[in-house]
Amino acid sequence: MFSLFKRIPSMSTADLQKEGAKEWTVLDVRTPAEYRSGHIAYAKNVPLNKIAGFTKKGDKKLAVICQSGMRSKQAAKILNKKGFDVVNVRGGMNQWRGTTKGGK
């Protein structure tokens, strides 16, 4: 049956931490101020309001993260419609237990 709502795959922050920068291009879709307050070292900041203009370089899989997982889910849907193979990171930075860059 044809579905109008394509389910976006998701992964936990623990899975992302295990596979890390070697496997994934991580897009942090929070605002630049949120990003500066602490982010995954290898994550690239592409705010949600600019995600539609994103162009991918390289062949790594895309993972999208935000603070809680809501904005990243929206971003993943937009990227998916553009033809990208993308995964939403559940729980976002609230669940991230790895090291961060920036912030206090």
Structural description of this entry:
- Pfam families: Rhodanese.
- The protein is of the alpha/beta class and 104 residues long.
- The chain has one domain: Oxidized Rhodanese, domain 1, CATH 3.40.250.
- It is 31% helix and 18% strand.
- It has helices at 13-23, 32-36, 70-81, 92-95, and strands at residues 10-11, 24-28, 43-45, 61-65, 86-89.
- A five-stranded parallel β-sheet has the order 1-5-4-2-3, with helices on both faces.
What's the layout of helices and strands?
Blueprint: E1 10-11, H1 13-23, E2 24-28, H2 32-36, E3 43-45, E4 61-65, H3 70-81, E5 86-89, H4 92-95
Parallel strand pairs: 1-5, 2-3, 2-4, 4-5
Organism: Enterococcus entomosocium
Pfam families: Rhodanese
Domain Rhodanese: 20-101
Biggest beta sheet summary:
5 strands, parallel
Q: What count of domains describes the coordinates?
A: 1
Q: Helical element count?
A: 4
Walk across the major sheet and give the strand order. 1-5-4-2-3
Global structural class: alpha/beta
Q: What distance separates the N and C termini? A: 50 Å
Average pLDDT rating: 91
The number of E-state strands comes to 5
- Runs with pLDDT <50, length 5+? none
Radius of gyration: 13 Å
What gross morphology would you assign? globular
What's the CATH H-level homologous superfamily?
Rhodanese-like domain
Pfam families: Rhodanese
Domain Rhodanese: 20-101
InterPro entries: GlpE_sulfurtransferase, Rhodanese-like_dom, Rhodanese-like_dom_sf
Protein name: Rhodanese-like domain-containing protein
